[in-house]
Inverse folding.
């Protein structure tokens, strides 16, 4: 468990440093064209790390039911959260997910960042929503995993 907590804290620190560099305008110019998408991935990863750290706290301290068999989940879940944060950006930019009913000229990337945090924090619900969009737009059936959850 200690190694998992260490991994999550190191990953959270690295992602937070990257976020801080962006906020301070210290990222190299080469990242400028992909900055918003990259920050969505980073913020999704932060959401995933927060979720996993909370799970460690709940399972190890509150419920006293830590199970080492879940170890791989704690390592993989934040990486999936990073991917979901990036995917949330793609779906927003493509107009397949909509944050508000109208466009405002003064809007910023905050909506993108908020959704990417939620996507990273709650991967299962986000993937289910993306599958709903894929089914509605392209007629692609939901994955077996999502179908099994509905039964």
């Amino acid at each position: 468990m200690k190694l998992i907590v260490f991994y999550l804290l190191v990953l959270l620190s690295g992602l937070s440093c990257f976020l801080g560099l962006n906020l301070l305008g210290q990222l190299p110019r080469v990242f400028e064209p992909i900055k918003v998408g990259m920050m969505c991935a980073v913020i999704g990863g932060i959401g995933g790390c927060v979720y996993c750290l909370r799970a460690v706290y709940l399972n190890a301290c509150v419920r006293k039911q830590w199970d080492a068999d879940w170890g791989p989940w704690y390592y993989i879940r934040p990486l999936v959260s990073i991917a979901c944060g990036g995917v949330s950006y793609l779906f927003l930019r493509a107009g397949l997910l909509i944050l508000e009913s109208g466009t405002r000229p003064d809007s910023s990337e905050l909506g993108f960042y908020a959704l990417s945090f939620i996507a990273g924090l709650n991967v299962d619900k986000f993937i289910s929503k993306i599958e709903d969009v894929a089914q509605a737009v392209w007629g692609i059936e939901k994955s077996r995993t999502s179908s099994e959850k509905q039964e």
Notes: Residues 45 and 82 are 4 Å apart (CA to CA). The chain has a mean pLDDT of 90.
